[in-house]
Amino acid sequence: METELPTIFSAKRTSYVRSSVIREILKLTVKNSDILSFAGGLPNPDLFPKDLLSSVMETVIRENVSIALQYGDSSGYANLRIQIVEKLTDVPWVSPSSITVTHGSQQGLDILGKIFMDSHTNVLLEDPVYLGALQAFSPYHPNFLSVPMESDGPNLYFLEEILSQNKIHVFYANPSYQNPSTYTWSVEKRIKIANLLDTYEIIFIEDEAYRYLDFDGKVYPSVSSFRKRNDLTFILGSFSKILSPGFRLGFVIVPELYQNLFTAVKQGNDLNSNQFSQVVVSKLLETMDFDFHLRSIQSFYQNQKEYLVYLLNQFLPEAKFSLPEGGMFLWVNYPKINSKQFMESCLKNGVAMVPGTEFSPSSRSSSYFRMNFSFLTKDVMEEGVKRIADVYRDINT
Amino acid sequence: METELPTIFSAKRTSYVRSSVIREILKLTVKNSDILSFAGGLPNPDLFPKDLLSSVMETVIRENVSIALQYGDSSGYANLRIQIVEKLTDVPWVSPSSITVTHGSQQGLDILGKIFMDSHTNVLLEDPVYLGALQAFSPYHPNFLSVPMESDGPNLYFLEEILSQNKIHVFYANPSYQNPSTYTWSVEKRIKIANLLDTYEIIFIEDEAYRYLDFDGKVYPSVSSFRKRNDLTFILGSFSKILSPGFRLGFVIVPELYQNLFTAVKQGNDLNSNQFSQVVVSKLLETMDFDFHLRSIQSFYQNQKEYLVYLLNQFLPEAKFSLPEGGMFLWVNYPKINSKQFMESCLKNGVAMVPGTEFSPSSRSSSYFRMNFSFLTKDVMEEGVKRIADVYRDINT
Description:
- The structure is a homodimer of 397-residue chains.
- Chain A is built from 13 helices and 13 strands.
- With 397 residues, chain A is an alpha/beta fold.
- Chain A folds into two domains: 7-48 and 291-395, Aspartate Aminotransferase, domain 1 (Alpha-Beta Complex); 65-287, Aspartate Aminotransferase, domain 2 (3-Layer(aba) Sandwich), CATH 3.40.640.10.
- In chain A, the strands form three sheets. An eight-stranded mixed β-sheet of chain A has the order 2-9-8-7-6-3-4-5, with helices on both faces. A three-stranded antiparallel β-sheet of chain A has the order 10-13-12.
- In chain A, helix 2 (50-63) crosses helix 10, helix 5 (104-116) packs across helix 6 (131-137) and helix 5 (104-116) packs across helix 9 (259-270).
- The longest helix of chain A is centred in the C-terminal third of the chain and has 26 residues, at 290-315.
- The two termini of chain A are 36 Å apart.
- The relative contact order of chain A is 0.16.
- The interface between A and B is large, with 81 and 81 residues.
- Chains A, B: GO terms for molecular function: pyridoxal phosphate binding; transaminase activity.
- Chains A, B: It holds the Pfam family Aminotran_1_2.
- Chains A, B: Keywords: Aminotransferase, Pyridoxal phosphate, Transferase.
- Chains A, B: Residues 52-388 form the Aminotransferase class I/classII large domain.
- Chains A, B: InterPro entries: Aminotransferase_I/II_large, Class-I_PLP-dep_aminotransf, PyrdxlP-dep_Trfase, PyrdxlP-dep_Trfase_major, PyrdxlP-dep_Trfase_small.
């Protein structure tokens, strides 16, 4: 935190609270609309079926308004939990009572941090890691360890080293189209790692927020689906990328043993998830051609990705990245730069990206930047890449 | 928790998680619709202006859909924060940047617990206390102390004793139409206690969820408005009672010093509050005659309260209670009963109330029961009171 706080008044855990540079960058880009931003992680709202939303709203107000406008079950709206089981999960042991609907998958991270992380609990992360997980877990002050990532998943040599030398309690990972790297674990690695998790009796928090964003419409089997110890595995899902972040809904698949505890913590956090949104999303899922909708998102993002790839190859061939199979980002390595200086010069030159440091569990400096392609028009992307290229050449000549 | 948990896998704080008997009672009443329930705390959805909602939804979909369906500012939707300052606060130092919109006022309690409560922090509560606060604070494992309540606020003799003998860090209270007691602090006590809080440098968490439910339309000045130390006072508000719990929105007025920290914790919890609901509620506030709406809620609840009072006087004159000035409950003392036995017999006889034990910071046994009058029709209330009277006479003859 930048502000000096009267620590005598705050709990010790507040000194571990992590703020987000992304938020600061977003503020800058809102203040100064001349800055072209690859920094966000915003889904494209044009992909949302707005006409359908109107008719669904009418139906909800006509037929379900007393449910939609009331408090609800702390575990979530019953119909929606059934739909999640039917449409959005692949583990065989799941039932509606396994599902707790959360206020975005981010809330699932906070609740699982609260349940599993004491001061100095060993928690293994991917490096790079989803920033929101660092923000959710940090106040509980676990001991973070991290495993280096390759484009097809964790480096197995390092993973086995870490597991054999430390008592790892929780492993948090984002195996499909990871934010920020868009790395996706191969099926082979999924199976191997599921076995390792079973052997070492490790709780796995599998973040599947991007599960359905494969450019070809492929859906990877979850790592959890390969585990024998289904009492030690939690899967997080989200409606933010496949429908809209505005409904602020996600879910967690909770093993039976932990369901009462999870619900009690959820209740203490906020009583129950937004009932109005739950009824609307449930009705949307009932009404819409969901598979068709997914395909249209997937092919739109594929198209956007290809254009950004083309622009970088064309205007800045020094930039290195692996081609993602899905998601909303390119994870770009700009060789021979000082990342802080590069970012500041980019901002001065009217273009924003998120520096890789933000996603490092140890805040290590990095020459990587996360570039979002889901939100910008092609013209803006082109102008943005040109501005980055100008800055890069300025620095490197 | 009833379920045996493999504690080796859970954080220490989970042993302090409190589940809610209310939830168990609600489950029973859902399973068995023959049970007439005074147990809930549900606002009456018939008071909601549904026609207006239809037209507001149309406008939102037409005019604000890209904002409503996107991620939002972690502090809340700017327009709504301005409206909160204009319509729903009385402290002079407030500005839109003081407001963070939360996922119900319950989330405000969790965030403030996270920020201020370490293991063994001295936290003063009212006795009886709002159950949700116990649920939110308990996982942070503070040391709870409590002050006995009178119908016009805390007993001042005991309060001064406690403050002079203990270093109290936080005082949480619900000064207007408290849940469960509906006790309301007099203006005189508000001023005196504000001074005491200043003298002892205590952080005050003022829960104003029921602020606008006065039967006569009166609005008490907040305790915080009498404080000189406005850097040590937080006010929680809610849209659940004045509009609808379905939108799951509340807010916290945060002193400047803590705004960055509060926002960072909010971000870790769930990124931002439900953007769709925020846009809809903002548009509703813009469109509706808010004062007229409040008056109609207030007079409906007054009417309901008077009927329940009449029924108890008529059928069960042994029941003792003070007449509330507002809110949704009667806090009823049933003399000469064993509360556990009384509750069980009531449930067997098809009627539910919440036993006072639930609201005791020390889980002390109590002959009080919380009876809700906001939700039931008059016929149902009459049948319910008759059933309670039958059980009472069975036990006491």
